[in-house]
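Quick one:
INPUT:
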């Protein structure tokens, strides 16, 4: 088989790239190691920046997101038992975010891909990338007991943090930066009405909690937990009781509980690999970088990488220019590092770090107090939360 762009990974990054390339008349095949239902079972992001919505619009896959997504103009910070609203819309001169689940984005992209008759190979085993430092890269994989080779002009590594693409780059050609946090997030999804119509980010001395949603009748909640906790030891009742402990009295009274549809623990990590291009191999999304979820930036960064990569390939095929390809890594990394900084900062501010002691706790409270009472500080938070433009400082 031959294609112009071989995409490894059918998560949101790979599927969105496939959709955008199709709009520009560029041929792409996606190779995914899992089944569609497995990909859809991963409950992850919930907050989409305007930049991401714009890319979904350009890919022609945003109709359901506009119809069913919830536009949010603000969110709340809860500390010392009080909630404080950050009015993103007013503070940023009109920006907002869309609350719409990653599962739904993925489903919309899968449906559009199937409707357009585009090729996705699911359940591909032993996927390997070869010769990306030469003129004719290849992706090899096994399917139904047979070995297949996909020859291409470029490989897009959209295969997530544990994928094969970054791992195939010689160690000397890549530099990585990492911080692992000493806690994880226990997430619970339930068909209950959200505790309030906006997200609540709660800082308490019992740990962080987040109240989010997937619509008016489905809620997504998270608790900071020690990395040693096991999800099977957290009953639904224990989850709801602990969440109550971390909320203010009004939210506690409004909290509706119910059986969980899904519960899982995710470790928190900051990670960046530099550069993001190796010859004809381009990394995008979680394959190149990870942010802790506090800033809601992971999926949005995956989308902006893909936006730059789409432009690079469109320049190459349609305008015979290599400029986008040559600047891809630098352009992505600039936006990535800003989101890394914001996600690290917001994580450090909101979580409980036992090792920093009572002084550390006081510093967090003083910063939160400043943040909600200084318009300049609130604006900085709001500006980062809604997402920086793709061509900032250009
Ligand atoms: P994905 O989603 O991991 O998809 C990668 C795909 O590649 C496949 N794959 C392979 N395929 C072929 N061969 C191989 N060798 C392969 N190895 C892997 C995988 O099966 C998979 O299908 O990466 P992608 O596309 O870069 O997307 C990134 C996002 O999924 C991620 O950044 C976000 O979910 C992060 N995130 C959030 N991001 C936001 O923007 N807003 C949020 O509100 C938000 N909340 C979150 C989050 C992540 C969370 N967890 C669980 C880490 C909340 C949580 C709890
Ligand atoms: C989510 O709804 O899953 C979500 C929302 C905001 C975050 C992280 C996750 O910061």
């Amino acid at each position: 088989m031959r294609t112009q762009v071989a995409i490894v990974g059918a998560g949101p990054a790979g599927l969105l790239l496939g959709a955008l390339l199709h709009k520009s008349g560029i041929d792409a095949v996606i190779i995914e190691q899992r089944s569609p239902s497995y990909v859809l079972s991963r409950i992850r992001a919930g907050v989409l920046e305007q930049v991401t919505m714009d890319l979904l619009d350009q890919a022609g896959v945003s109709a359901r997101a506009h119809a069913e997504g919830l536009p949010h103009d603000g969110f709340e910070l809860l500390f010392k038992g009080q909630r404080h609203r950050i009015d993103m819309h007013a503070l940023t001169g009109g920006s907002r975010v869309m609350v719409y689940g990653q599962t739904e984005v993925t489903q919309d992209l899968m449906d559009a891909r199937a409707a357009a008759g585009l090729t996705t190979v699911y359940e591909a085993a032993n996927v390997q990338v070869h010769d990306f430092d030469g003129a004719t890269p290849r992706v090899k994989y096994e399917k139904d007991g047979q070995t297949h080779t996909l020859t291409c002009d470029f490989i897009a590594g959209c295969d997530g943090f544990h994928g094969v693409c970054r791992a195939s780059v010689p160690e000397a050609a890549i530099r990585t930066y990492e911080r692992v946090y000493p806690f994880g997030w226990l997430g619970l999804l339930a068909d209950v009405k959200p505790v309030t119509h906006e997200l609540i980010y709660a800082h308490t001395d019992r740990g962080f909690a987040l109240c989010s949603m997937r619509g008016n009748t489905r809620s997504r909640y998270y608790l900071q937990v020690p990395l040693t906790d096991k999800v099977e030891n957290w009953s639904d009742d224990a989850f709801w009781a602990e969440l109550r402990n971390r909320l203010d009295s009004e939210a506690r009274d409004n909290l509706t509980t119910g059986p969980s549809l899904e519960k899982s623990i995710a470790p928190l990590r900051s990670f960046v690999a530099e550069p993001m291009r190796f010859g004809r191999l381009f990394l995008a999304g979680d394959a190149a970088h990870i942010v802790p979820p506090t800033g809601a930036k992971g999926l949005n960064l995956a989308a902006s990488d893909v936006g730059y990569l789409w432009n690079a390939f469109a320049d190459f095929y349609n305008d015979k220019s290599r400029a986008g390809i040559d600047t891809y890594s630098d352009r992505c990394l600039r936006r990535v590092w800003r989101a890394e900084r914001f996600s690290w900062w917001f994580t450090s501010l909101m979580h409980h770090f036992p090792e920093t002691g009572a002084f550390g706790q006081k510093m967090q409270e003083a910063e939160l107090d400043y943040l909600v009472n200084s318009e300049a500080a609130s604006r900085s938070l709001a500006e980062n939360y809604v997402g920086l433009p793709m061509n900032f400082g250009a």
